[in-house]
Each structure stands twice: as C-alpha cells, then as structure tokens.
Specification:
Largest sheet: 5 strands, parallel
Distance between the termini: 68 Å
Strand content: 5-15%
Number of strands: 5
CATH topology: Rossmann fold
Order of helices and strands: EHEHEHEEH
CATH superfamily: Response regulator
Shape: elongated
Helix content: 40-55%
CATH class: Alpha Beta
Number of helices: 4
Structural class: alpha/beta
CATH architecture: 3-Layer(aba) Sandwich
Number of domains: 1
C-alpha cells in the first residue's frame, strides 16, 4: 500500500511531522496559513490534514482553509483548552498524548476513510450504471410510443 500523504500544518517544535515520517507517512509541512492556502489551492490532495494547534494562535484559520479546499479528514493536535465556535475536525488529540497512541488513532481514521471512499466510489459507479439503464429504457419507451402512434394512425384510430 502506498504511504498516506499527510499535510501537517503548524509549528514544527513538537516534531509530529518527524514522528509521522518515521511511521512511514509521506509528510508535507506548511508552517503558515499562507503556505497552507498555496498548497491547497495548487490542488494537492492529502489523505489527511494534521493541524498542530499553537498556544499563541488559534487553529480556526487552518481549520477553515482545510475544510474549504479539501475533503480529507482533519486531525487537530491540541495545545490549549481553546474552545472553537464550530467543530471542524474529525479527530482530536489532547496535549501530551504519546505518539504510539495518536499514530494508532490516525491509522484507524485513515482506514475508515479509505473504506468510506471506496464505498462512495462503488455507489457512484452503481448510480452511473442505473442512469445509463434508465436512459436506455426511456429511449425504448419513446420508440414504443412512437411505434404505437404510427400503428394507430395506419389503422385509423
């Protein structure tokens, strides 16, 4: 399986990006909101966005950008007890959580996301097939109606 692409946002002093790399993840780092915006606007598609909350800066900007530009799950690594008006993340990691613990949680989140994406793609394919079948049935129905109308005209009804 290909390594999951992680987009890590925030201060690197906690070394989470390094831990993720050691665990086998492909990690791209964005230290600022401007870097995050550029990265997401360029169309990069991470499997997960990890946001490291900073004590002196709320994560709302990063959360908003990530939600606006990608559909990947978001993990918020908490550094404070900051409350947010909206919950915009899929997994919250409390401060001082051991890496092994949050790596397991991240792996579970990615596994669930992969299953959901696969199910969604399957449903889309089934929907496409049904639309094609419905179009063919409509065409058959139109042709039959036309044929019946022609027969009625010929028989004088």
């Amino acid at each position: 399986m290909v390594a999951a692409h992680v987009l890590h946002v925030g201060d690197g002093s906690s070394h989470r990006a390094s831990v993720l790399r050691l665990a086998g993840y492909a990690v791209e780092e964005c230290a600022t909101l401007a870097e995050l915006a550029t990265c997401l606007r360029e169309g990069r598609t991470p499997d997960v966005v990890c946001i490291s909350e900073e004590p002196h800066r709320a994560a709302e900007g990063a959360l908003s950008l990530a939600r606006a530009y990608c559909c990947a799950p978001i993990v918020l690594f908490r550094a404070t007890e900051q409350t947010y008006l909206q919950r915009g993340w899929d997994l919250e990691i409390p401060p001082l959580t051991p890496p092994q613990e949050w790596l397991e949680q991240l792996a579970r989140l990615l596994a669930i996301t992969r299953v959901n994406v696969a199910a969604s793609l399957d449903q889309r394919e089934k929907s496409r097939v049904l639309r094609e079948e419905a179009a063919a049935t409509r065409e058959q129905s139109r042709a039959l109606r036309e044929s019946v109308a022609t027969l009625r005209e010929r028989s004088g009804q």
